[in-house]
Design a protein that fits this description.
The chain is mainly beta. The protein has helices at residues 2-15, 239-242; strands at 38-42, 45-51, 55-63, 72-73, 81-82, 84-93, 97-109, 112-123, 128-139, 142-155, 163-175, 181-193, 197-199, 202-217, 243-261, 265-282, 288-306, 309-318, 335-345. It folds into two domains: 1-138, no CATH class; 156-353, no CATH class.
């Protein structure tokens, strides 16, 4: 009976127009193979993972327009806009190796859709985790291809140097509307965790984060603009027409992570202070290099009145540095971002969680 009820719940969620999933963008696929059975509902996502301890699956949608993004937008006197990322995935897990295949579909408009197949791989008793999404966007006279946010995480088991995270991307946009031109962006982020220590009831795990972003061709650093389309170029222009050297951003941030928990409440907190350098040299102009400090205070709160039901609250207060502009130019001095929701942990379809 329990297996029947859970299977019925899965089918109803798949059929529901209001269900949307948790593996839509960012670094979320990296945890797919380690997540147990659960139903999650947050401000920008709602979805589930169900399986029997060996085979698992996930399905749903996720908003693409920020922390308070719309799933369904109904403008006045205009057609309804359905604009989330739809995610579906299946995975196999064992003590030796885990492998998962995911797929995201993002509807931009009737002329452009984005397809993102994802490979997830775990090994060494889940101490090594890899997620590799490949994003393809296609429209009339436009093609965008990206190895977008490929990740590797390795947990060493040694407190002195206990974990490393590597994020990598390469993005290529080609447009042939009037004159053919190409934009290429490259970047990576490394996080090095060290000296994990228990001080009283608090677990302290500092890490250093290092970011590097550059535009190999075209005028865009770090991020896509307008869901994959490039900006900063007019028809026929090349990188050498705009810059004498490729623009870049370098960001170094020491972070102090703190964690504590009781029977019903868990808290994770990250105060940080970083240093950023953004540099570019336009044709016929002097080199412009901007230096800035970046500070942050990030927190996650988990409340579990019972073992199977959890309330989650996330907060991020920071002085942001936008890599596509001069540091802190045209930005508010403090950015506040947050999300909240619940997670309902479900039993295994095979009866053993």
């Amino acid at each position: 009976m329990k297996k029947f009820l859970l299977t019925t719940m899965m089918l109803l969620a798949m059929a529901s127009a209001s269900a949307f999933g948790m593996y839509g963008y960012g670094d979320s696929w990296i945890d797919f193979l380690t997540h147990g059975n659960q139903f999650r509902a947050r401000m920008d996502q709602l979805g589930f993972v169900l399986g029997n301890g060996t085979i698992k699956g996930t399905f749903g949608f996720r908003a693409n327009t920020g922390w308070m993004g719309n799933i369904l937008n109904v403008p006045t006197n205009q057609p309804t806009d359905f604009s989330p990322t739809v995610s579906v995935g299946i995975g196999y897990t064992s003590d030796m190796i885990g492998i998962g295949l995911g797929y995201n579909f993002t509807y931009i408009n009737k002329d452009m859709q984005v397809h993102t197949p994802v490979l997830a791989l775990n090994a060494l008793n889940n101490n090594l985790r890899i997620a590799a999404p490949i994003q393809v966007a296609d429209a009339d006279n436009y093609t965008g291809i990206a190895f977008n946010n490929i990740q590797l995480r390795y947990f060493t088991g040694v407190d002195a140097f206990n974990a490393i995270r590597l994020y990598f991307y390469y993005r290529n946009n080609t447009s042939d509307v009037d004159t053919k031109y190409t934009s290429e962006a490259f970047g990576f982020q490394v996080r090095l965790y060290f000296l994990r220590t228990q001080i009283g009831n608090v677990t302290v795990n500092p890490y250093v984060r290092i970011d590097y972003h550059t535009a190999l061709k075209g005028g865009t650093i770090e991020n896509y603009v307008a869901h994959g389309r490039i900006s900063g170029l007019s028809g026929g222009q090349k990188q050498s027409d705009i810059y004498d050297v490729s623009p870049f951003k370098v960001f170094v941030k020491p972070v102090l992570s703190l964690a504590a928990s009781s029977d019903t409440v868990s808290l994770y907190f990250e105060p940080s202070l970083g240093y950023a350098v953004v540099s570019s040299k336009y044709k016929g102009a002097d080199q412009v290099t901007t230096h800035a400090l970046n500070w942050g205070a990030y927190a996650e709160l988990y409340v579990r009145p019972v073992q199977d039901l959890e309330w989650y609250f996330e907060m991020d207060v920071n002085g942001n540095v936008n890599g596509s502009k001069k540091a802190n130019l045209d930005l508010p001095p403090v950015l506040f971002e947050t999300t909240t929701g619940i997670t309902w942990y479900l039993p295994s379809l095979g009866g053993n969680q």
